[in-house]
Specification:
alpha+beta; single chain; 2 helices; Alpha-D-Glucose-1,6-Bisphosphate, Chain A, domain 4; globular
């Protein structure tokens, strides 16, 4: 089992950050690799810029604690048993965006972990830029 975490400091209030990143259907509004992210019930489909789709199930969503957890149910990523959490945490400078996951890599773990870290970092940096604009 692989575990990764990427964090991004943001100089806005936790509630302002959660307003942007806390809506699972709003994922495409801030992640540059996602062109649409509609939800229906607890299901979300992420449409990627390259035309691929990732189907996910939202397992938990807590506005008070500012985090949600989802799992991938179908898609092109070389992973199995993927579960991820996106969270906003208060900090002295504003807040921290934290994106964590655990999964079984279906290939070289260092390559898959690096790819996912890159996707998380690009998304969180784009969220930071959007929030601090």
């Amino acid at each position: 089992m692989s575990r990764i975490a990427v964090v991004q400091s943001v100089s806005v209030s936790p509630s302002a950050a959660w307003k942007l990143v806390g809506d699972p259907s709003g994922f495409a509004a801030w992640h540059p690799a996602v062109t649409a992210s509609p939800t229906e019930g607890d299901a979300r489909t992420c449409h990627l810029a390259d035309g691929a789709q990732i189907r996910e199930r939202i397992l938990a969503h807590d506005d008070g604690a500012m985090h949600y957890t989802y799992e991938i149910t179908d898609g092109p990523l070389p992973v199995a048993n993927y579960r991820s959490t996106l969270a906003v945490e208060p900090s002295a400078e504003g807040c921290v965006l934290r994106w964590t996951s655990e999964f079984e890599p279906l290939g070289p773990s260092d390559e898959i972990e690096g790819m996912l870290r890159g996707l998380y970092a690009a998304g969180l940096e784009a969220a930071r830029a959007h929030l601090e604009a």
